[in-house]
């Protein structure tokens, strides 16, 4: 087995264990394999090991890697998970099955326009800056409910869930729990939270999608 296949097997096992510990149904947590900075060959290796769902944080990088892979693996699904500039909205809509980083009114408007132009409607997650960190993307906690309403009612966007990246320091669980509560209140089914270092905690708090990069593909250069 290659390192990537072995790493994937181990992560799937840990996801299954964490799901069982949380008394949640088997298979209720999906693994988004984050392949940013790793070549298409690494993604192909993961595909060969049965992985079908991938995450990339830069649209341009994803556009270079994924169209070729999709030709061979039509059931591949791609999530765009990184901060998105409005001038990349159209490329993101063309490429992604899910865009996880909707975080401001200007981007909501740009995505609505891009969806109309492209005739394609990827699902959207609203990213919340749960730690209120000034350098981080995401709508502030206090504005999240109003922003969700505007995305759905003013722009008619297909928002299906929430995403967050808690502060690197400290216990992520209060942040995960806060996001889960907002999702429940708003009737949103998808909760993307948890990365290599904290995905088990995220599963305990209700994550439906965990985004794992380095624990599968190795450290980023
Ligand atoms: C890179 C990245 C990840 C994966 O991080 P790892 O620590 O490598 O698992 C998850 N989510 C987002 C938004 C990322 O940019």
Automatic annotation (TrEMBL):
Keyword Ligase listed: no
Residues annotated as domain Alanine racemase N-terminal: 7-220
Record keywords: Pyridoxal phosphate
Modified residues (N6-(pyridoxal phosphate)lysine): 36
SUPFAM superfamilies: PLP-binding barrel
Keyword Cytoplasm listed: no
Entries under Pfam families matching the protein: Ala_racemase_N
Stated family: Belongs to the pyridoxal phosphate-binding protein YggS/PROSC family.
Function: Pyridoxal 5'-phosphate (PLP)-binding protein, which is involved in PLP homeostasis.
Protein name per the record: Pyridoxal phosphate homeostasis protein
Source organism per UniProt: Siccirubricoccus soli
């Amino acid at each position: 087995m290659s390192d990537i296949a072995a790493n994937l097997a181990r992560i799937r096992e840990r996801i299954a264990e964490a799901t069982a510990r949380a008394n949640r149904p088997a298979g209720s947590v999906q693994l988004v394999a984050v392949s940013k900075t790793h070549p298409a060959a690494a993604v192909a290796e993961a595909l060969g090991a049965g992985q079908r769902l991938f995450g990339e944080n830069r649209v341009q990088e994803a556009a270079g890697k994924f169209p070729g892979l999709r030709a061979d693996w039509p059931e591949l699904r791609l999530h765009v998970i990184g901060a998105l500039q409005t001038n990349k909205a159209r490329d993101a809509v063309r490429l992604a099955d899910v865009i996880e980083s909707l975080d401001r009114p200007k981007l909501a408007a740009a995505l609505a326009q891009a969806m109309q132009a492209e005739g394609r409607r990827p699902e959207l997650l609203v990213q919340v800056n749960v730690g209120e960190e000034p350098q981080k993307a995401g709508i502030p906690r206090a504005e999240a409910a109003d922003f969700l309403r505007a995305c759905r009612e003013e722009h008619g966007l297909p928002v299906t869930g929430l995403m967050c990246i808690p502060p690197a320091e400290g216990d992520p669980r209060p942040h995960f729990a806060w996001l889960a509560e907002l999702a429940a209140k708003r009737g949103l089914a998808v909760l993307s939270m948890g990365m290599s270092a904290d995905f088990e905690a995220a599963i305990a708090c209700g994550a439906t999608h965990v985004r794992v990069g380095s624990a599968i593909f190795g450290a980023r250069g």
